[in-house]
Design goal:
This protein is mostly helical. It has one domain. The protein contains nine helices and no strands. The radius of gyration is 20 Å and the shape is elongated. The two termini are about 25 Å apart.
């Protein structure tokens, strides 16, 4: 068994925990969890995209927005919960590497913005759904929510893919405050401080 160094940050403590080591050292755990994570995100993105295209009046205009929402929302939440669980397990296996990775941190920020966009839509715009439910002409708030959602989720998917290709690129030992940009230096401050 490989000997791990004494953790110097909270992120290393998570990564060098029993679960973190087991996930990182297993030949099958990480790829299996990552595969389930990708399938869950495809479910989330697909169900959200269907609803967003309806909000933009570009697809399924013959289906009431409320019906579309009730048909897709349960699958969105099932996919999201599964993605959150598997994403947390992936994070635990390489926490310190993820925390300095700009694609991971951008993905997390955009997930928060996508969630805020959804909350505003459901608690503000959707309150008046009875007025525009069967209409192909939707309120501006619905269209804005739809386009923002598509933008956020396309970038989230891009960042998610980029994480896998850049995990070894960003490391606390390699950060140079003179060369690296403000974003990498800020992430190093978060990831590399005890």
């Amino acid at each position: 068994m490989f000997m791990y160094p004494e953790p110097t940050t909270v992120w290393e403590s998570i990564q060098y925990s029993g679960l973190g080591i087991a996930l990182a050292e297993s030949l099958w755990a990480f790829p299996m969890i990552e595969s389930v994570h990708v399938m869950a995100l495809v479910t989330v993105f697909g169900t959200i995209l269907v609803m967003d295209l309806r909000l933009l009046g570009l697809a399924s205009t013959n289906v009431a927005a409320s019906k579309m929402s009730s048909d897709t929302l349960k699958w969105t939440w099932i996919g999201f919960v599964l993605a959150a669980i598997t994403g947390t397990l992936l994070f635990i296996s390489k926490a310190s590497s993820y925390m300095i990775n700009p694609f991971f941190m951008t993905k997390m920020g955009l997930l928060a913005l996508a969630g805020l966009n959804m909350l505003i839509f459901h608690f503000v715009t959707y309150k008046s759904v009875n007025e525009w439910d069967n209409s192909s002409s939707l309120p501006t708030g619905a269209k804005v929510a739809g386009i923002l959602s598509i933008i956020f989720w396309v970038i989230i998917v891009f960042c998610g893919r980029a994480i896998g290709f850049t995990l070894g690129v960003y490391d606390c030992a390699m950060v140079d405050p003179e060369i690296d940009g403000w974003y990498i230096n800020m992430l190093a401050g978060i990831a590399c401080s005890g």
